[in-house]
UniProtKB/TrEMBL annotation:
Protein name: Uncharacterized protein
């Protein structure tokens, strides 16, 4: 699935990123290390 459509960041940039008319800042939709709320689930 990821190969077909891309990861979350790629999908967001393609639909809402700086090269689109909307050009929304990622803000809280960014990963935790960049000030957002998204983080990967822990692997055990």
């Amino acid at each position: 699935m990821i190969e077909a459509v891309g990861n979350y960041g790629e999908i967001y940039d393609r639909n809402f990123g700086p090269s689109t008319p909307i050009a929304l800042d990622r803000g809280q939709n960014n990963v935790v290390s960049r000030g957002g709320l998204h983080y990967g689930m822990p692997f055990r």
